[in-house]
Amino acid sequence: MKRLVLLLCLFLAACGEKKNDAWLGYAEGDTAFISAPQPGWLTSLKVQRGQAVHRGDLLFLLDDAREQAGRDQAAAALGEAKASLAQEQSNLSYARTELNRQNGLARVGAGTPAQRDLALNSFRQSGARIAQLKAQIAQMEASLSNAAYGLSQRAVTAQAEGPVQDIYFREGEYVPAATPVLSILPPANVFVRFFVPESQLSKVRLGQAVQITCDNCKPLTARISFIAAREEFTPPVIFSVENREKLVFKLEARAPGGLALNPGQPVEVRPQ
């Protein structure tokens, strides 16, 4: 009797087992590496690892003594040029008055041609000088804008939102140009990478909707955005001893705004 009960229990347990036909994978994220466009000493770090940053937040500062000096020099040169322009405009006003006087004298035959020619030449020279100064001022204003922009680049702000994943330089260290100082993972960059056996590859296509499940999380929906052109032998991480497939294809699925998962988190993917 006991043996019969035991066999019955084993039979019922076997009937209750469901085949897991899900494709195994894990969450992944495209990290944004934040660099400075210019080299310099890191003077201040404004964020910490794990801190959530928003677009426009100040991330870190580089030494800016040279850039401040360049901006101040450009501003001083521009001020001198504008002062020269103001003086030359006064000269032009006087030259115009003198030329009008000489023209009036010439009409009544009281002036001399030499004096009128001198007044006309002074008027023309002053006008040419003003045009030259205006062109120089335009160039100086551009130089000042460039200097101010270069100074602003010493304070690096966030152009992406998300938690800080890692920090590669600390205060007091020299940062080469275009070298990441820290990294940020925007939530929209989180996707799922999973592996489909070669025998099931014909069931998937780009743009196909899939359902993603994980431990203690609500099912998520995404669409296949990438299918590897070549197969590989076993995924880099195997999350289940039941995965017996030797030949698999790597796929990726994404959703607008990203997926509410943590990179490295195991997931199961099923077609919808």
Termini separation: 47 Å
Classified by CATH, the class of the largest domain is Mainly Beta
Structural domain tally: 3
Percent helix range:
25-40%
The largest beta-sheet arranges its strands as 1-10-14-12-11-15
Element-by-element helix/strand order: HEEEEEHHEEEEEEEEEE
CATH homologous superfamily designation of the largest domain: Efflux pump adaptor protein, beta barrel domain
The backbone outline, from C-alpha atoms, is elongated
Q: Which blocks of ≥5 consecutive residues have pLDDT under 50?
A: 1-18
Biggest β-sheet description: 6 strands, antiparallel, barrel
CATH topology of the largest domain: Elongation Factor Tu (Ef-tu), domain 3
Per DSSP, the total helix count is 3
Q: Got a strand count? A: 15
Indicate the mean pLDDT.
88
Structural class label = alpha+beta
Strand content: 25-35%
- CATH architecture of the largest domain, by name, is Beta Barrel
State Rg. 37 Å
Could you describe the 3D structure shown?
- There is one protein chain.
- The chain is an alpha+beta fold and 272 residues long.
- The chain has 3 domains: 20-30 and 187-271, Beta Barrel (Elongation Factor Tu (Ef-tu), domain 3), CATH 2.40.30.170; 32-62 and 154-184, RNA polymerase II/Efflux pump adaptor protein, barrel-sandwich hybrid domain (OB fold (Dihydrolipoamide Acetyltransferase, E2P)), CATH 2.40.50; 65-152.
- 36% of the residues lie in helices and 28% in strands.
- It contains 3 helices and 15 strands.
- The chain has a 6-stranded antiparallel β-barrel.
